Amino acid sequence: MKAESLNSLEKGIRFIGIGKHGSKDLPVSLVSDLLVDLQSGDFNPIQQGAFFGALVTKGVAPHEYSLENYLGSEVLSNAERLFDRICEEAPAEMKLIGVKLLQGACLSETEARQLGNFILSDQPGEVLRGMAVSILRVRYESDEEYHGLMLAINDTFTAGFRQPVVAHAPLIQLAEPFDGVEHSYIITPILANALQKLGYAAVSTVGRSSGPKLTMNAWQLYQSLAGKFIKSNEALKSPPPPLGWVLDQKDLSPALDRWVDRRRAVIKRPFLATLEKALNPTGAKVLITSVFHLTYMEKMVELGMMAGFEGVIVLKRGLEGTLAPSIARASGILCAARQPDGTWTSTRIEADSSEFSQFRAEADAIIENPDVQENARLVQQFLEDGLTGNRDFDLRAGLAVGLYSRGLLWIEGVWQS
What we know:
Layout: H1 8-16, H2 28-40, H3 45-58, H4 68-71, H5 79-86, H6 95-102, H7 109-119, H8 126-139, H9 143-154, E1 171-175, H10 188-196, E2 201-206, H11 218-224, E3 228-229, E4 245-248, H12 249-252, H13 254-257, H14 259-266, H15 272-278, E5 286-291, H16 297-306, E6 311-316, E7 332-338, E8 344-350, H17 372-385, H18 391-416
Helix pairs in contact: 1-2, 1-3, 3-8, 5-6, 7-9, 10-18, 11-17
């Protein structure tokens, strides 16, 4: 989205909705534009909520108090008055939670679950929805909040995914950011195929992209490859197809899928972008996922534990945050496993270790506007021949298979110890 196409609320969200250590005060000129647009009443309610949630969480600068010409005198200094002013359509029972968020307090697990149930419902209150997800993102979510929100999302699963069944083989869930890529190819189906040769069944979780990247994602790639999308856990009783099973978010939870357009409007990625990868509707044993920010590696392990996985592998510095490792930059995986006594242990495996030297290169290729059909062709050719002629793709696929297989062997060793 080009800067000139953004409205004033979107520009404001970009300035102040970027995390508790990175937000900047609004330019004076933008505050003036915001006042004009807010007073006109011509704005998206969820963006209004996201903006004011981020502003209060950041801390209001002296010149930003002029926004009270729209809100009312001293509203920005009073959480309850701000809630009443902008969240008047929200259910009355949500006020205590909304005010607590505006005051900077963390929610209990029970409160977070109540918030999640509201966020995913059809009840009125778009401003509160935007405000809540923005506040959680800027200040970061607590473990109790994550767990409560996860339970709320689980409540929205369709009937076919409510009760895990005994799968044909132990399940590995592959989950990367649903917004996909803009400058690289996706290798996830190759990884699924390789891990199934180790005796597992793979299920890749995918869905429509909520942005900010909208070029290509795994959902589109599996469609191009005629992937086997499951509608319920019953399908898992059968032997898996060569590329593993595929689970589309809209089939798992229509309520989550309805948030895709909301997330595009909110602009900054809310908690859903993290949680949707760690959900475990099929009762999978191992989660293989990735993070863009290194500080979230341990958090993904914790979320995997919450969701009932027995082992978690998290890739660091994957291309564009995906499961495709870099063949040039420092990359690697954090592996964690539940020991027989119930405690967890972890280790790290680096991609630049000598055992993977054959898959390293001087630089990662940058693909301009990657095409889903070409990506599908490369996947199919690699699976058929083991090589595609595209050196960058071949090295990356080989590194991914070697790296994740090595991590899985370590996890199995922990389980058997």
